[in-house]
Structures are given as C-alpha cells and as structure tokens.
Amino acid sequence: GNTVLHILVLQPNKTFACHMYSLILSYDRNKEGPGSLELIPNNEGLSPFKLAGVEGNTVMFQYLMQKRKQNLWSFGPLSTVLYDITEIDSWAEDQSFLELIVSTKKREARQILDLTPVKELVSLKWNMYGRPYFCFLALFYILYMVCFTMCCVYRPLKPRTGNRTSSRDNTLYVQKMLQESYVAYEDELRLVGELITVIGAVVILVLEIPDILRVGAAKYFGQTILGGPFHIIVITYACMILVTMVMRLTSTTGEVVPMSFALVLGWCNVMYFARGFQMLGPFTIMIQKMIFGDLMRFCWLMAVVILGFASAFYIIFQTENPENLGQFYNYPMSLFTTFELFLTIIDGPANYDVDLPFMYSVVYFAFAIIATLLMLNLLIAMMGDTHWRVAHEQDELWRAQVVATTVMLERKLPRCLWPRSGICGREFGLGDRWYLRIEDRIDPNKHKMMRYTEAFKVQDRDNCDKGSEKLETNGDTLCKKEMSALSLSRSTSRTSSHRGWEILRRNT
C-alpha cells in the first residue's frame, strides 16, 4: 500500500491520484498510529507528503494539507485554522521538508514555498530569528575581514640587505624570520589579530565539513540556492589562512601568495550576505549564473585564443632586444600581455622607436579582429541572454535562498537561541504534533459579486447562442437577420445588466 501511495504522488492526473489516495487510506487500519501508510518512507527516506513537495506536485500537497488541518473556530468571515507542520518544520527533522524543496532542481517544487502554511512558517522564522541573526553574522564577518586585512597590511617586513641580481630586480623589503616577527608592542597587537584570523578559519572548517559529509559534495557545492560557489570560496579561504600560518611558523618565504588569495576570496565572500536583503539578493543570483554559466564556457575559448597568439608574439620578438620590448621578454610575460590585449586593458605594447618585425602587424591585426570585435561581443550577447532568462525567476530563487539560509541558521545555532515555532498539539488535545495557527478572513461580498458576474456571463452567452442559431436558419435574408440580431442582443444585454444591477442594489 505504501508503494502505491508513492506512485500516486507521481501520477500526472492529479484529481484521479487524490481520489485513489483517499480510497487506499480508507482501508488502512493504523491511520493515526506509527504504522500508518502515510508515515512509511520509501528507499530515499521520503514519505508521500515529502515526495509530493520534492516532485512539485502542488495539487497533491494542498490535498494532503487540507486533510491535516484542524478548524479551531470561525465567527462570520473570520476563521482560525491549525495546520500540521510536523514534517514541514526543520527544527526536529534530519531531512526537513524545506531543505528538500530548496535543494531540488525542479522549479515546480519552489512554487510550494508560496502556499499555505509553508509561506507563513518561513516568514515567521525569517522575521523573528533568521534576519536578526543573519545581519549580526554579516556584521561580525565584515569586522573579522577588516581585522585580517590589517594584519596583512602590517605584516612583518625588513629592508633588503643583498645586492640586486639584475636590472629588473625591484625588491626593497623581504619577509622577517619568525624570531624577528614578534618583538615590539605593535607586533604583539598584530599577533592578537592573527590569532583571531586563524581561529575564525578553524571555525569555518568545523562548521562546513559536517554539512559536506551530510549532504554530499556534489549537491553542496553545485546548488546555487544552497550557496554552492560561496561554500567553495570560504573553504578555500580558510585553507589559505592555515597555509599562511604554517609558512609563518616555519619561516618559509613566499607567504604573500596564499595571503593574497585569502584576501581576495575573503572579501568576495561578503557577497554571500547580500542574500539576506531583497534589494541585493537577486543580483548575486545573476552574478552566479553568469560566472558559472556563460563565463566558464567562454574561458575555454579565450584560453585557446590567448595561448595561440601569445606563442606567436613570443616567437616574433624572441630574436629582439628584451630591454626595448619588455612586454614580451619571456613566455609567461607574453601570456599576461596577450590577456591584457584580449580584454582591451592596454593598447598594442610595441616600441615604435625601433624597427618592428613585419609579422607583428599581421598577427596583431588578426588578434584585434578575433578577440576584440568577435569574442567580446559574443560574451556580451551571451550574458544578455542569461540576464533575460534569469530575470523571470530571480525573485523566486531569492525566496528559495532565504529559506535555505533560514534552515542553515536553524541547524547551526543552539536550541536556546532558536526555539521551535508553532503550537504543540497537547494544548488542544491533538497529541504531540506541532501546528501553526493561521487566521483567515473570508469576504462574503467578494464571493457574492463573483456569483453575480458569472450569472451575467451565462445570460449573455445564452443570448448570443440564440442569436447565432437564428442567423443559421435563413440564408437568403442574412443581412436583415444580422441587423435584427444585433438590436436584439443590445436589448437583451441591456435588460440582463439592468436586472443584475437591481439585484446588487437590493443586496446592498
């Protein structure tokens, strides 16, 4: 029976599935007990209720929610309903309903976030606990990054004592050894900031690694809604901090490399906290879609073009004096210069005071046509198309990001800082299940107006049908019948409208 219930949730005919679902449950002997068919999960650990949410079956979801709700009281147009949120709430669920919805790739599943009571539950959690904690976390992270930046700016350096090895050597300061790095009072103050930075990196790894093991690396890093790219950024940042610490303790030169990566990644991760604001959240979604969609594909084409033309430029200037043509004096510098040319950051880096090889003009002409005119405009067109596609669902994706952030904070924070939302069913004699109280107001005048409007439409439709039947009977006098039918329709529509307004006046 449980297998049949899961199959019915996946049926395309929603009405038939709901009727068959009720029929099967009518033969269940343990409707309210722990052995009920509705509570038995499938091989993926999903009950029929959770499976309806993951598959985006809104009809089945609303049908199951109507079965679970309890009407508390009603007085005229006002009514109070208790919705069962036991499986929906992520407070005590290892595999919560909300997390399953935001982690699925089906757009229909995200539409359930706008249905009652999911919408009200998410709004309650976010406004009461999620938004204040998230704003505090954003402020704390920015202060943490300021502390790390100051430690990097005032890192221990000393003047260089050795001689220059070439005319291109421009180094004035070198890194201090570990014994020389913490001597003065300023060094001790910097040590406090460095300890805070290292402790923060360890905390990031401790918080991120359990989620990777629980969700899986593919889903954790691959879902935009779950913040996949930002998780990669923050984990790489923490690793760079630990690498810098090891190099400082072992007095290894070259700590500027991991330190530079950590600064860039740490400040880029500030964009993650834009998802908490409706004005900035959709823009971060657009950036992620463009970077990991259009830009990643474009980089393969750009790499091929840069490798080809950089090699050509290096071969052309290989026999020339490097002091007069410094942009191509070795192969790595040729790659970097060609990359700058590709993005039109610089002009053609050639010294026109000396004789240039003839092939330089030919190769540079082809490079300008292919790179600047063709490929850059292709990238702009691709990004414009992505912006048009994502703009239709960016608000929906942002709401899903808010849900994912709320679930993440609820898992990370202690229970004393995040109490359970809703009302326990024991207060109303409904057992240990948890409910959410929702007040609804039904406007009777609105429904009455809709009934009158439908009545007017039916009368006008009947009059039109009668007029069309009369037009088909006599083909010889078509023009006369058309004129009479038009006058008849005007009179009947005027009469039905007059009768409808009289009904509205009397009811008012």
From TrEMBL:
The chain crosses the membrane at residues 133-157, 191-209, 230-250, 256-274, 295-317, 358-380. Pfam families: Ion_trans (PF00520). GO terms for molecular function: calcium channel activity; metal ion binding. It is a multi-pass membrane protein. This is TRPV5 protein. GO terms for cellular component: plasma membrane. It is found in: Membrane. GO terms for biological process: calcium ion import across plasma membrane. Residues 134-393 form the Ion transport domain. Keywords: ANK repeat, Membrane, Metal-binding, Phosphoprotein, Repeat, Transmembrane, Transmembrane helix. The keyword Membrane applies. It comes from Loxia leucoptera. InterPro entries: Ankyrin_rpt-contain_sf, Ion_trans_dom, TRPV, TRPV5, TRPV5/TRPV6.
